[in-house]
Amino acid sequence: QSLLGYAPAELIAQPISVLVPPEHRERHDVLVARYRRDGAPMMMGARPVLHAVHRSGRLLPVSISLCNFSLDGSESGRVSVAVIHDVSALHTHLDRATASAETDALTGLGNRLRLSRRLQALLAAARPFALLFLDLERFKQLNDRHGHEVGDEALRVVGQRLRRQVREQDLIVRLGGDEFVMLFDGLDDPAHLQERALAVAHSIGQPLRLNAATGALGVNIGGAMSPRHGRSEAALLDAADKAMYSAKQTSTHYRLADDS
């Protein structure tokens, strides 16, 4: 009752699936039937973190220990016991560790790992999306002239400007050095992608007023769209990267990848 909010009378004789998120109930019923038939005991920690439905409707992270046994030694007296453990604290620690591993320490943006995981998820779901591959102009000169602290400050400012160009469902990552990637979930219109790229270029091109220096950066941007320019992480990043180099060679802000 303290864990899930139900009084005993509310759960007695109810199907165990009332504690399972609705979208998982059908599969859960199949797994329960299989486990009751031939499942071996599973100790705490042998199962991944799952979610149970609290009486209020919110989902609570839990882990479960399972065991089959017979009350009287007969098949008809066989029962299954599930012990539910609250792992909210553990789940929070795992979330923090995962977030830290996927975050660029300098800018607070995502890193290559976060980008890879997001790309794999979108590709598996066959969702349309678009990428912008950014390479800063004149950053090396700024860094060489004023030092790494000023260069780091400039990268943080760029990260802040990029954040203002995306929605909550989009993603910005710093690949390293002065290279960034922006992912736009659901964007499937080349004209819209060009608008986003030019808005990004305009934002980055605004004067920098840093603590120890002033200056201005430019940017070359390459665009790629899924599935138009590739059906894998490597293919899409390569297409956007090549388009960025094409923009650099032609001294333009933005180029879309060539259709294959």
Describe this structure in words.
The chain is elongated. The strands form 3 sheets. Strands 5-6-4-9-10 form a 5-stranded mixed beta sheet, with helices on both faces. It contains 8 helices and 10 strands. The mean pLDDT is 87. The N and C termini lie far apart (59 Å). The chain is of the alpha+beta class and 260 residues long. The protein has helices at 8-11, 25-38, 88-101, 112-124, 139-146, 148-163, 190-204, 233-249; strands at 50-53, 59-70, 78-86, 129-137, 171-176, 179-185, 208-209, 214-215, 218-226, 254-256. Helix 5 packs antiparallel against helix 6 (148-163).
Give a brief description:
With 260 residues, this protein is an alpha+beta fold. The chain has helices at residues 8-11, 25-38, 88-101, 112-124, 139-146, 148-163, 190-204, 233-249; strands at residues 50-53, 59-70, 78-86, 129-137, 171-176, 179-185, 208-209, 214-215, 218-226, 254-256.
